[in-house]
Write a structure and sequence with these properties.
By secondary structure, the protein is α+β, with helices and mostly antiparallel strands. Helix content is 27%, strand content 30%. The chain has a single domain, classed as Nuclear Transport Factor 2, Chain: A, CATH 3.10.450. The chain has 2 helices and 5 strands. Strands 1, 2, 3, 4 and 5 form a 5-stranded antiparallel sheet that branches. The relative contact order is 0.22.
Length: 132
């Protein structure tokens, strides 16, 4: 796909602080980090509400409940995970929609996070998110 690695940045939300528009690659990495921090109990899930669709948010909320129960059952305290990110891979199947994946390495575990981002009012919003 021509130009796939050089996707244009999406302009920020008009109500968000002004600054440099976020690229698809940066959005995928930031969302992956935030989601894994939510799963670890280090970040409140409400912080993701504007960056994901209602369907993704509901699915993520259920997954967080399961993670929280498992953490409590094993006596594990919530803590911010130490994460290392591999390169973000991006494809643009249709103009304004990107699909990205990144492998995230944590203590003793690596996960792939796949995200479908769509432009909504000039900013990225995840319409699909999978943690493998």
């Amino acid at each position: 796909m021509p130009g796939c690695g050089t996707l244009a940045a999406i302009s920020p939300d008009p109500f968000a602080p002004r600054g440099k528009p976020i690229t698809a690659e940066a959005a995928v990495e930031a969302l992956a980090r935030s989601v894994l921090e939510v799963m670890a109990g280090a970040r409140d899930i409400e912080q993701l509400s504007r960056w994901v669709t209602a369907e993704v948010f509901a699915t993520l909320r259920n997954r967080v409940r399961i993670s929280t129960r498992a953490r409590v059952a094993h006596g594990v305290r919530p803590q911010r995970p130490i994460l290392r990110f591999g390169p973000v891979r991006i494809a643009e199947p249709v103009h304004g929609i990107v699909e990205g994946v990144v492998v995230v390495h944590g203590r003793g575990r690596s996960r792939a996070v796949a995200v479908r981002l769509e432009t909504v009012r000039g900013r990225w919003q995840a319409s699909a998110l999978h943690i493998l």
